[in-house]
Amino acid sequence: MKNIVKISFRNLMRSGRRTILTASLITIGVMFVLIYSALAGSFKAYMVGQVTDSMLGHIQIHRKGYIASVDNLPLDKNLNQKQIAKVTELLDKNPYIESYTFRLKLGAMFSNYVASTSLRLNGIDPEKEAMTLPLFASRVQGSDAGMLQEGHILVPELVAKGMKVAKGDTIVLVATNLKGSVNGLNFKVAGTVEPISGPGGRDGYIHIKDVQKLLRLKQAEVSEIAIRLKNVDDLEKAMKSLKPLQMMKNQKDKPVFEIHTWKKLSPFYNIVKMLDLMDISIKIILISIVLISVLNVMVMSVYERIKEIGTIAAMGTSPATITKLFLTEGLMLGIFGTLLGSLLSYLIVIVINSVGIAFSFGRQDDLVLNPVLHLNEMLIVSAIVILISLIASISPAIKAANLDPVDALRQN
Amino acid sequence: MLKNEHVTKVYKMGEVDLTVIKDLSLSIDDGEFVAIVGPSGSGKSTVLNILGCLDKPTEGKVTVEDVDVTQLNRTELAHFRGEHIGFIFQSFNLIPVLSVYENIEYPLIMIQNLPEAERHERIMQLLEDVDMLDQKDKFPDQLSGGQRQRVAIARALVTKPKIVFADEPTANLDTKTSQQIIELMRSIQQEFNTTFIFATHDEKIVTAVDRIITLVDGVITDDKRVAS
Ligand SMILES: Nc1ncnc2c1ncn2[C@@H]1O[C@H](COP(=O)(O)OP(=O)(O)O)[C@@H](O)[C@H]1O
Ligand SMILES: [Mg+2]
């Protein structure tokens, strides 16, 4: 084997320029795939983190039918006390869950005594909200999100600008409850909330107890329960552990709850899916590049050396050994290209991280990507490229082994 | 011992069959120094290739070292050639990426798998025999035609074959070099009793051999032993 490698290596170096060109093509392809996947991975991790840690949580529980009409923020699809108790009982002993928070949502009119606009109001328990959404606080300006007091409101930045209200101002919120009675209450502006991409541009926050007052509720109600997991990777397992809630039926034998992961709830998940699709497409392109370029080089290699193949065959080199010689050549081409590509990608990722490439997404500027090259990804890509190089060499190698020595020797 | 019995070789050229060798029978003993001669296109190379187990006859039986080689498959034939047969070519056919030493070593590692120590001893001895010891680390493109053919002879002999086939071995060499190469092969034949079979029309070879087989249009017209 050592000798096969030696001869193959020298044969590759014999047409050095062609070998280097082909290996570089593979190198560039590998770099493209690895760097893309590192960048996309970091972008994904960042955006998913934003979506789950500042707004959605990892999993949400609603009364069945809520999500279908979520845009209207319906009040008739809230969870009642009995249902809340059921959920609480289950969540408290669930090992995957870090924390959870109750929200009571409604549509309301926002007035600064001069003009009014509509608002999506979220009644929250500030402490639990901050625990469940660790990035929520970073969206809030002018106030400590975990300390939102009763009688205070966090106004969406868009609305604050449009209605020209600032911290300390007093405003009125007007809401209609299920019985049709209208109620208005004064609130003090405690700060503003930055929107994140996706729905949420008109989301304002008040204390959940204030919502009860505004709607004149006799008992506590909840429209949404957002859950934070100890480990995001346990999403599927956690969903499975919530199965009993999902199976729960009412007297009419209809399910009571609906449970969704952030993937279902955020339009951003479609972007994640697109990024993943791109990743697969780029890999397919890489495979084609490797296949075509290695095949091309190996066909040329066999064609140029017909007489040499005839010579070693005449001397008694077995067809199997001739096959191995050419397979090794193609394999080495793939290995060179991959090693170089992986090494360069590694270096480039280090450079990107030290330079710090900023980008904007939606209304957010100066997000800095921290691409990470995962060893796993590197090994998988290398294995694919090396395997494809081997596959591309099979047909030329077999052709070489099947050459008739007499015909081959007659070539000039 | 080498035997051809009623060998015929037909090439299919589209619709036409071209019979190159017709009912040829021939026997060559161990240690013979033989030349097959004849005009160009008379079938010398074809006969050599069939005797050398490179090509199969359309009809007839070929026995080499008591083995009916027409019954062997590709891999068995390759193995058989590697064990018993050496080849010397008109244009030397050294492997360009291997040094002189490595070229001679090639059959011992890629075909016969001999241990290192034994290989080294054999190669050094042969390098001395063909007077190429001081060139052993050079590559083929750094050598003259005569030097290359010496290396090729050493490579053909390193496996200690019973029979060596040489198709026009002097055709690409000048007179003086040809003479030296012929003498080299003669001395090896005498030392190891190796059979040498040439296909040639080089007078220098013809006058050096013990037996001359004349071929015209695929038929033996003369087969004579000569005292040299
Ligand atoms: N593969 C082949 N296909 C068709 N004809 C061939 C082939 N090989 C050799 N021939 C023909 O066979 C004849 C003998 O060729 P060859 O044995 O090479 O003769 P020599 O070596 O005496 O010059 C020539 O007419 C040649 O054209
Ligand atoms: Mg010929």
What descriptors fit this protein?
heterodimer, A: 412 residues, alpha+beta, six-stranded mixed barrel, two-stranded antiparallel ribbon, 12 strands, 55% helix, elongated, B: 228 residues, alpha/beta, Rossmann fold, six-stranded mixed β-sheet, four-stranded antiparallel β-sheet, 7 helices, binds adenosine-5'-diphosphate, binds magnesium ion
How does this model look, in words?
- The complex is a heterodimer of chains A (about 400) and B (about 230).
- By secondary structure, chain A is of the alpha+beta class.
- Chain A has two domains: about 1-50 and about 270-410, no CATH class; about 65-255, no CATH class.
- In chain A, about 55% of the residues lie in helices and about 20% in strands.
- Chain A is built from 15 helices and twelve strands.
- In chain A, the strands form two sheets. Chain A has a six-stranded mixed barrel with strand order 2-3-8-5-7-6.
- In chain A, helix 11 runs antiparallel to helix 13 (about 320-355) and helix 13 (about 320-355) runs antiparallel to helix 14 (about 375-400).
- The mean pLDDT of chain A is about 90.
- Chain B is of the alpha/beta class.
- Chain B has one domain: Rossmann fold (3-Layer(aba) Sandwich).
- Chain B has seven helices and ten strands.
- In chain B, strand 7 (about 165), helix 6 (about 175-190) and strand 8 (about 195-200) form a beta-alpha-beta unit.
- The longest helix of chain B is centred in the last third of the chain and has 18 residues, at about 175-190.
- The two termini of chain B are about 20 Å apart.
- The interface of A and B includes residues 3, 13, 313 and 318 of A.
- Magnesium ion binds near residues 45 and 199 of chain B.
